[in-house]
Amino acid sequence: NDSICCLFTTQSSRKSRAVRDTLRHVKVKESRRPGELHGPATVYVQVLGAGSRDNGASLYVFSEYNRYLFNCGEGTQRLMQEHKIKIARLDNIFLTRMSWETAGGLSGMILTLKDTGVPQCVLSGPPQLVLSVNITHVHFIQIFVSFSLHKKSKTLETFVSFLLVFHCIVFCCFRINIYKPYECFQDTKLNILKFNSAQLVKLCTPADPGPVFLVVDCPSEDFIQPLCTNHVLQRYQTGGSEDSAALVVHMTPESVLDTDEYKSWMERFPSSTEHLVMNEQTFTPHNTRSHKLQTQLNLIHPEIFPPLKLYKTKEPPASLRVPNVRAECLMKFQLRPKLEWQRDAIPSCDSEEFVKEAAEVPKFLEEVEECRKFQAAASKYPEIVFLGTGSSLPMKIRNVSGTLVNISSSQSLLLDCGEGTFGQLCRHYGDDVDEILSRLSTIFVSHLHADHHTGLIHLLLERERALNSLGKAFSPVYLIAPVQIMTWLNQYHDHCQQILSQINIIPSKLLCDGAEIPKVKTKSLIQAVLKKNDLVKFQTCYVRHCKNAFACSLTHQSGWQLVFSGDTMPCDAVVNMGKNATLLIHEATLEDGMEEEACEKRHSTTSQAIGIGMKMNAEFIVLNHFSQRYAKIPLFSDDFNGKVGISFDHMRIRFGDFPMLPRLIRPLKALFAEEIEEMEERRERREMKKTAEPPSNGESGTSRQPDEMSKGAKREQDDLNQEAAIKRLKTN
Predict the structure, then answer these.
(1) CA-CA 20 to 30 A from 109: which of 84, 90, 303, 443?
(2) Is 682 left (phi over 0), alpha (psi -120 to 50) or beta?
(3) What family does this belong to (predicted)?
(4) Spatial separation of the C-alpha atoms in residues 719 and 448, rounded to whole Å
């Protein structure tokens, strides 16, 4: 197969100050003259995602000059952000194959690179990469200023980047050479040997051959034969013409590892070669900050904040005949200055330490004790599980939008599906995740900003896997979404993986009050959604956000009604649709006092969201979709009352919990007292600055809305391809 090298340049949408900070390391690299370049003195390979089901295999390669990423599945940038691995330094991304498992986080990563101010990045991978980049380029309008493509040959081609040499050997394998550094002059030896200045003597360290490591992705037994017979790889095995590989990274399922052919191939490497295995046979947590927060919140209310779990594969580990190391998050293999494993960066997840830290917070335990005096009686269903409560991009505490509604013990529905939603399900349900996926019949996508739908494809694929694993009959998901989503899904289906059989599309606009439903099949799909979920009504309405953005309302046969706002400014259409609702889940992206910014970005503040719930006469209001500046907790406004609660990732509530939720605020304020104080100080500085600034010559927030909507990582697709998308609706 050919390989593709794709160079794209970006244009930042942020202020120039952020761009200058980002470009500092770029200027240093550009200032080096060719004669000054030498092999890097420090190089290491570091595990990001160890290959677990919730964090697919991804590898980070560090040198002084560049940073490299192998594979970019969903959740990769969240891991990098949590563990302080700078995305801004990343300038090369390699994909071992073109699947959602390896590239699901690529669109989000590109958007983040753009907003961070990275001037260019090189993407390398199989031929479908160019199609994937084009899909991303079209779907998230003009996220690149330009990009150029470079086709490599079918067998062995080289990509040189600051003296690390990358060879694409076969479809699923990379070989990486590290150039040796300049020989070092040894002045101490000159003094010992007492040579005079007239003699010319070479007094240098011995030549240091650059080590080689291999990255191998062998996803199925179909790839074993070409891997075993590849003549280039044979050079680095026993009896080969090159120095043996220092490290072989196996991104290989256990079922493939356990075959005699693959075991024999591993044995051809000399005993000095290290083997790193990255697959689902890893049981260590990656997102330790989430585990820490959930452990501490669990002290407040064990039912509302259940402890997180790990998914453990039922597949037995392969019995390998060569020494090997199982991957763990942040584990390193140092290639220079000396070859060695380093485990000091591996994150620990000590629940006892997390509890001890919370217990030492002043007044926290007292507030918890007071809160626990009240016990609410709650029926088991419906049950709402918040999987992502943050906005814009995944961060270490809050993932992006996703809310699971368990209607009954056999039926579930998902409201939005941002990147990493499946990973959140894994961490919430552990080994029961397949059972939960098998119950999922309906997905509602509010709009086509990246933080609300880019987890969809992964979820569909994992749901199919779950049904197969459980031996249950397959049935497509009912996807209620803006019809424009089909442009993205059709292109991915045609060029990457076949997924259209996974869905039955129902355009959101056809569920608006008074909408005419043009086709009989669409009417039957709507009736099927209602019957499947025991609903009497599923309604949508347009909201004030981007083009083709919707809220939705579910009315159950037993009488309860749930309203989900999606992203919106205060909107009367939501009020009218949700009159006297049982529960309103409304976005509260920004704090009070930031109304102008909320208007510019077409979001709501805390008090605005509460105001919508009051006008609606909702029985209870839960706020979510917080700006990532409120990572742990938002600022509370004076409008908070006994009908308002705030959401956290992995928070689980039932309607009977409504009286308890406002009582959680006092222990939450105690636990996060330092963060609240810091946010209040920041608000005071902002207000003082605003007071000191001169008037803006009559410029209002609303006058800037068109410009603001045309910028940033969340810009939505236009309707240029709407007619084509409608024609491609294979389900209607």
Answers:
(1) 443
(2) alpha
(3) Belongs to the RNase Z family.
(4) 12
pLDDT at site 191: 54
Backbone angles phi, psi at 317, to 5 degrees: -70, 145
The structure tokens listed for 80 are 């990098």
- Phi, psi angle pair for 72, to nearest 5°: -145, 70
| DSSP at 418 | -
Segment 657-675 shows an average pLDDT of 96
> Has residue 440 got a pLDDT over 80?
yes
Q: Tokens 């402890």 correspond to what residue?
A: 307
- The CATH number given to whatever domain includes residue 539 is 3.60.15.10
- The 3-state DSSP class for residue 151 equals strand
Query: What does the alpha-carbon distance between residue 496 and residue 580 come to, in Å, rounded to a whole number?
Result: 45
Token pair for 580: 């006297």
Q: Looking at the domain assignment, is residue 725 inside a domain?
A: no
What type of residue sits at position 615?
K
User: By the 8 A CB rule, do 470 and 431 touch?
Assistant: no
| The residue to which tokens 């244009």 are assigned | 11
CA distance 354 to 434: 29
**Contact residues for 294 (Cβ-Cβ < 8 A; gap 6+):** 305, 306, 307, 308, 649, 650
For residues 30 and 178, membership in a common domain is answered with yes
3-state secondary structure of 468: helix
Q: Is 625 within 8 Å of 606 (Cβ atoms)?
A: no
* Average pLDDT value for residue range 537-566: 98
**Cis bond leading into 694, ω under 30°?**
no
Can you tell me the distance from the alpha carbon of 157 to that of 150, in angstroms, rounded to the nearest whole number? 11
Contact 612, 575 (CB under 8 A): yes
Provide the domain count of the chain.
2
724 pLDDT above the threshold of 50: no
% of the chain at pLDDT higher than 70: 79
**Where residue 584 falls among pLDDT bands split at 50, 70, 90?**
very high
**Residue 230, pLDDT score:** 87
Does residue 258 belong to any structural domain of this protein?
yes
**Does the pLDDT of residue 568 top 90, yes or no?**
yes
Q: Tokens 């507030």 correspond to what residue?
A: 367
Q: Which of 227, 189, 182, 229 is nearest to 206 (CA)?
A: 182
Q: Which tokens in the block code for residue 607?
A: 């008090």
What are the tens digits of pLDDT across the range 27-54?
656 666 555 556 678 999 999 999 999 9
pTM exceeds 0.85 for this model? yes
Task: Please identify which residue in the block is written with the tokens 């002059």.
Answer: 185
Region for residue 664 given its phi and psi (left: phi exceeds 0; alpha: psi -120 to 50; beta: otherwise): alpha
> Quick check: helix, strand or coil at residue 488?
helix
Do 71 and 212 lie in a common domain? Answer: yes
Higher pLDDT: 723 or 426? It is: 426
Q: Classify residue 125 as exposed, middle or buried by CB count within 10 Å of its CB (0-12, 13-18, 19+).
A: buried
Q: Which two tokens stand for residue 153?
A: 């040959």
Q: Are 599 and 592 in contact (CB under 8 A)?
A: no
Q: How far is residue 408's CA from residue 534's CA, in Å, rounded to a whole number?
A: 9
Cα gap 152→168, rounded to integer Å: 9
Does residue 283 form part of some domain? yes
CA atoms of 383 and 614, how far apart (whole Å): 23
Strands annotated E in 84-156:
90-94, 120-125, 146-151
